[in-house]
Fold this protein.
Amino acid sequence: MRMLNVRPATPEDARIIARFNCEMARESESIELPAARIAAGVSAVLENPTRGRYWICEIDGIPAGQMMVTYEWSDWRNADFWWIQSVYTDPKYRNRGVYKSLHAHVLGAARAAGACGVRLYVEKENRRARAVYEHLGMHAAPYEMLEIDFVIHRKPE
């Protein structure tokens, strides 16, 4: 049986995280992200934990997936929501518990840190990912997301 291990990412993981981020954007949204911008964004998180935190799930010591968490203060709850972002599992390791392990680890860490909850957003057409999130206890929030994105330009729906 293969050994799964979830650990905090380190600066040595920056290249694999950046690669996973580019692959995730390509796969889930058909977007080609500029590698230099992604590398700088990953390094910005790894160098400044107030921006967020990455976790890596390894199988037998090989990075198989990742998750990033960022924080949003809720004055109504007097605590942070942890936002799950940059979720990716290498296709050759899918259906082996990688995301489930990352999810469980982050939920435990969020509770231990006093967070008020965990949130994520999922691309509307990504039904497979949504089913996984719902299976692990997440549910639709009573909010819709609106944005103005100064970097990635999409046509309004």
